[in-house]
Amino acid sequence: MKDIQQQLEMNALFEDLAPMADKKVAVVIGRFNPPTKGHYSVIDTVKKFIRQNKNLGLEASPVVVIIGGSKSDADKKKNPLSAEEREVFMKASGKANGVLFFIAPNAFAAFSMLREKGYEPVAIAAGTDRIDDYKKMLDKYFLTPDGQPIKHYAIHLERNEDAIEKDKDAKKTAMDKALETAKKKGSDIDTDLVSGSLARRAVELGYEPEFAKIVGLEDKPALAKKMFDKIAQAIQG
């Protein structure tokens, strides 16, 4: 993808990579703005991958890198919570226990930072729209000290097409339909349809109970309300 290619071109020129690290880890990278039950499902998937692939020698704790601090964060309608706030909410949810959190401006910087901190990114979890680019990035730049390739593993995350619809109008229609159905029937929202965009749309519409379901905090209404209010305040400027 274009933005990932730009990351590579800039960082390859100006950044010296730390040497290969000892602790092999599985990594999840994302904006998590806001964190949702879909994100927690991803973390559970990565934990399962680690358990089922003991031969890879991965650390038991998955690494979650929150992308923040970039220019896009200035758009509060798309990125209403700061990276630090996202981390606080994820930890407070109780649904990301046993996770190591870091903050980085982009994927390449994230992988590089992990090396500096002693973690080698061996497995990466991402959706089908980004996983190949991340793996290519790792395969090309993250090598052994003598320049030999390291075996990297892709943890594919399948997503419902409605959740990743590129057309803005179609995506908005799909989100509103899912929210209206949940509101009228008092039903849950399928995890495959959940996204940060859906959560932000629920805030825009004032759908607080539905928002709590999307972010997986039905059992922690006070925390859900705090997140809802922070997002509403940021969106409204």
Write down how many β-strands occur, each being a DSSP E stretch of 2 or more residues: 5
Distance between the termini: 31 Å
The shape, in one word, is: elongated
Tell me which oligomeric state these chains represent.
single chain
Query: Which class of secondary structure composition applies to the elements?
Result: alpha/beta
- Write down the Rg: 18 Å
Helix content: 40-55%
The tally of helices reads 9
Mean pLDDT: 89
Poorly predicted spans: 161-165
The biggest beta sheet reads: 5 strands, parallel
Order of helices and strands: HEHEHEHEHEHHHH
* Range of strand content: 5-15%
Strand order of the largest sheet: 3-2-1-4-5
Account of the protein in words:
This protein is 47% helix and 14% strand. It has 9 helices and 5 strands; from the N terminus they run αβαβαβαβαβαααα. Mean pLDDT is 89; it is low at 161-165.
In a nutshell, what does this entry contain?
This protein is an alpha/beta fold and 237 residues long.
